[in-house]
Amino acid sequence: MNTKIVAILIVAVMVGAGVGGYALYKSHGSSSKSINIDVNLEVFGNADKDGKITEDDAKMVEKYIKAKADDNKTVLDELAITMSSDFADADRNGSIEQADADLIRQIVACTEKYIWILDGQGNVKKVNAESKRIGCEYFANTELCLILGLSDRIAAVDFAPYKYRSFYFSEEKAKTIGDLGNMSEPNYDEVNKLDLDTLLTFYISNQEAKETKIYNCDVLYLGCYNPDITNTEKSAFIQGILKAGYIFKVVERAEEYANWLLNYRDQLLSIANGIPEADKPTVMSATYGTAYFNDGSNKTVTVYKPADPLGQAIELAGGHNVYKDIKEGDITKSSLYGATVNIDTVLGTNTTVKHIYLHMVKYTYGGMEQESTPKHGYLIDDTTELAAGLAKMKALELVEDDMSVKLIAGEFRNGCSAGVLLGAFMGKQINPEAYKTIDPVKMMNEYIGWMGIKDFDAGVHGQYVYPGLTA
């Protein structure tokens, strides 16, 4: 058993976030009652509430069955504390019985035909555990499947990762990979021709329509859009990685990757926590080509909050997010990920911003190529467009000469590293002395290696943060 991932999930290192006792999620599927989320792995069969499904879970279920048959109140009182009655019901039929222990043993042996989980929204889902044809929306799901060693099972990807197919896949695979197109507004006739077993969705939009209109396919939102990697105990992102391990029967690989990511998270967070709050440079993160950071005529800006991967990166880099200085009354629009304010709220007179990081999106989830956004990322070595884009941003009236402005690749926000890789690059730039032992290029190469991509050096190829480090 991989005890490290269990320990990490139980004892979370948190920054700027609190965790309650347990949450209540709406149940869909076999029951309309709420599920008590008092476990560290949201896969049904996790009776003992730890980070992995093992023989111990099956034995606990059988212990409960015997105690109930014997009316042994002492044992039942003990199990009321140590066992999750919701998650012990592995087959979700409303009762705890021998069939649940049997299914748990099948999960352990990787012989189960189906598995019940909570998806990234907390909905109860029955999922095919024998999926052979996977469809991946956007970068995070594509990269996660590659990380888990599922390249052979990826049947199709949507618009953005399809543009990167020569990077992600072998030459032979790149020629045959299916194109899902714009999955924000899918062409369902074309999607159904791909005969998918599982579709991993990027976001929850159109979820119900996809479930209805894509035939004989599990439409699944793992939660990778919600990193909150500094709040690991209930991180939908980490849970999503682990759940994918169970769904696709690659549990050990999923645990290993989660540990790799969290090990680097811990290194960065340890450094960040050692920097006095008063010494943390103020950082603003926004999107290139939108609002003020288009041409300056729009006098608003949406800054990323700590819950977003870009906000997570600021925390991990030992920065102070300018969002924390914004008064509630100055916010004109807010979401989980960003807050919109007038630009002079964060820049201009009395600004404390020292570093501006602008997230670029070249290929959108909506199936568009943004012509005005500089080319960047894994496949781009030429910095001509990036240099022109940077000059345009630095020429904006409220961007002062002594401010550091960086353009960052969209993969950092929409990939499968939850802000950790960007946190390493950012820390190296905004707190170079504190982060002198961190090697972002090495981390980037390791990440690319996790995806099974060989003979690629991020120190030589690709544009990830511009200007600054090569990777």
Condensed summary:
This protein is an alpha/beta fold and about 475 residues long. The protein has 19 helices and 17 strands.
**Count of alpha and pi helical runs:** 19
Please tell me what the overall shape is: globular
Low-confidence stretches: 1-33
User: What class would the helix/strand composition place it in?
Assistant: alpha/beta
CATH fold assignment of the domain at 275-466: Rossmann fold
Report the β-strand fraction as a percent range.
5-15%
Q: What is the name of the CATH superfamily of the domain at 275-466?
A: Nitrogenase molybdenum iron protein domain
Major sheet description: 5 strands, parallel
| The level-1 CATH class of the domain at 275-466 | Alpha Beta
Strand order of the largest sheet: 7-6-5-8-9
Helix content: 25-40%
Alpha-carbon distance between the two ends:
35 Å
Rounded mean pLDDT is: 90
**Tally of extended strands?**
17
Radius of gyration: 23 Å
CATH architecture of the domain at 275-466: 3-Layer(aba) Sandwich
